[in-house]
User: What shape does this take?
Amino acid sequence: MSDPIEPSTSSSSTKDPALLIHPRREPFEHGLLPIPKLIFTDPTQTLIPLKQKLIEQSSSHRVNSAAISEVLQISIDHARLVLDTLASVLHSESDPLLKSKPDVVDEVGADVNDLVLFLYIQSYKKLLPRTHKDSAAVADVWPSTSAFDGYLSALSPLQLVRSNSRRFVPSQADEEAHQLSYLQKHLANIVSLLAEPVEGEGEESLVLTMEKFEHLGFLFYFGDKGSEGYHLGQYAPFFANSDPDMPAVPVPAAQVHDWVLQNIVSSLENISERISPKENGPPSSSDQDVPMADACTSTNKGSMSVRGPSFIEGISKSSLIKQASDLKGSSVKVLNCHDSVIYILAPLRYATVYGCSDATIVLGAVGKAVRIEHCERVHVITAAKRICIANCRECMFFLGVNQRPLIVGDNHKLQVAPYNTFYGQLEEHMNEVGIDATINRWNEPLALGVVDPHDSLSHPAGVSDAQAESGSHLDPEQFTNFLIPNWYGGESEGSTKDNPFPLPDIYVASQQRNQNNLGEVKQLLREAPLEENRKRELSTALHVYFKDWLYASGNIRQLYCLQGE
Assistant: This one.
């Protein structure tokens, strides 16, 4: 372990990003499940005895779906969902759960300490969106309301996000402050869940071992490199002089609590100092969520901070491509994009699509989790380990996923279909992030409740719950392959020449029929007994209809982009 660095309380050092503690966003953004039995009104009093019951299930302190189901009194499907969701947000890449094949996940199981922290944060409430400063200008960008508005629900997903005060996704700084404040409030309880009493001295003498202390890394990290930053142990003053050949002496839980709390306070002060100037003037370029201007090709515009995700925001009536070399970090957020085609052809850990409409979004290979939320009339094409769809309407998902698609919230008219595209580096990217092309569970969606207890904006208190509307299977006759343009010769070249996910037989047969029909039409046109001038008239008419379709569908913009205009 490297020498510890103790954060100073002076103003100058608190502004050094390398000395600041941060919340791990992943558990809060991708790890919350709207399962009522996982949300406890008094997490500590409930989870301490539950933790003991879980430990009794296994001598290795790792538990499988059956044990989780029995102790938490939830279905085996929900228990496996807990296990898979926890795996997608774990902090330690060396945990055996992350390296397990799907068929042996239950043999490996989850570490009880990580599981109880995961269960504790199910009490977290998301931050309400902020109001956009220029609501009038923003209103001009948004499309007309959905055809469903007025009789399916009071507000559509996008109307809900944009209603009245034109609310938008909170800034990264606001979200981080909200998550840190939650952890600050609950820190004593969180530490007590990991602590254990000194033998013979009773409950008053709680201590943390080095191994238990490292589990706090599920919720915190240091540095400015996102969740791939430094582990707590590299900064903590505890265990620093421990002999590697000897077990480290446990540390009083109160001492750990006070040290983490001091760091949280320093980080909150730093965030407050960064936010305050923005309230009275233009935001600084270092912290701003920078929207991307209309673009046809990959550019350097956008919010590409070293720490946190890359942003693609506010694209309207355009085509955009991002490849691995255009992204900093391994997470992407696509926010408030309209009437556009967006290609993100890169290996990613996490991806979020929020508040988009009338768009096609291609996400390359996502090894941890994808979340699609508050979208309307969007086509999403992705190869991913797992996907969660929340509060969407009239959307279509072409999926190559290793786990069951999770559908939560107020959804309407969703369709799911098998994966339908490829690009040169797809298989290389899938191998890099751990996606198995032989497993595709696109047709096994798991629907949870309509009400999300973590989201008070979409579902105010007192609203009755029901099972979310699931996604229907796309009619094989409507299934078509999606062609990704070869925008650039160099980086886009690769070994993938076809869709790596095998298609179900019924979709293969439909594609073959369509190909045969197209061949017959071409032959009929070639052999039509027409004079040359009539053939030219027919050809001209076909071109005119095709051009009309290009304009009506908006695909003409992609041709302009391909031509570099």
Summary: The first strand starts at residue 21 and ends at 23. The radius of gyration is 26 Å. The chain has a mean pLDDT of 80.
